[in-house]
Amino acid sequence: MSLSDKNFSFVMHCGEMGSRWGFNRTIGQMCGLLIITKNPMTANQIAESLSISRGNVSMGIKELQSWQLIKVQHIPGDRKEYYAPAGDIWDMANRVFEERKKREVEPTLSLLRDNLLDTASNEDELYAQKQMGEIHNLLETVTKWSSELQRLTPEQLNKLMKLGSGIGKVIDLKDKIFKKE
């Protein structure tokens, strides 16, 4: 399958972004390709489109399946497996956030909790624990907030994001109102 220049540019960009999302370039490219391709693709079609080996595609498929970002589809009368995105863009974004939380945030919170439970033996450790406590509280707050966001429908998320800087104005207004009382 041949990609237009615009589509190829997007897929390559997804590859570059892959490392920032938590997976390698090839997996990012595969994810981008499947997202913008109307019909499900076979592993051979993916390999051909990205000019990568079939083995590389197989490893990428396993990784994308472990992230629950793609699903296998079968076409009646065809023995090949076809791959497509597992849900819409919002579903996929939620899965990436959830997986990154499991891989990155939860181990960090666990380490911070362990360190905060230990008694500081000197002034430096006491200061370090204070800083770690702030990091812990920030991560806990972000984790709770992101969990709440994941419960919203895509329509509700769109409305929330469109509020943008308006949220800051509402908070400022609330602070002014309650300070006067």
TrEMBL record:
Keyword presence, Transcription: yes
Pfam families: MarR_2
Entry keyword set: DNA-binding, Transcription, Transcription regulation
UniProt KW Signal keyword: no
GO-annotated molecular function: DNA binding; DNA-binding transcription factor activity
Domain HTH marR-type: 29-80
Family the UniProt entry places it in: Belongs to the GbsR family.
Protein name in the entry: HTH-type transcriptional regulator
Species annotation: Pseudoalteromonas nigrifaciens
Lineage: Bacteria, Pseudomonadati, Pseudomonadota, Gammaproteobacteria, Alteromonadales
